[in-house]
Design goal:
The chain is mainly α. The longest helix has 12 residues. The protein is globular and about 30 Å long.
Amino acid sequence: MTTDLRTRLWEHQQKINPSSFSARYNLYKPVYYKGFDSEEEAREQELYIKGKSRKWKEELICGMNRDWNDFTNIILNMKP
């Protein structure tokens, strides 16, 4: 969860936290994101998703991004 998606993307690309999942597996291309009205709602959704199976998560991504396109440019062009 983050309140600044562009900065978070940069952190993943730069591997700021070398022990993170994204750094260990060289993952930095966003294929899914979702905005929320409150941090509480975002945290609840994050925990809910983390508890789901890989298959469920893949289906969630496909529902938004069927071809698993890289959303980097979309995120970088978002208004703050």
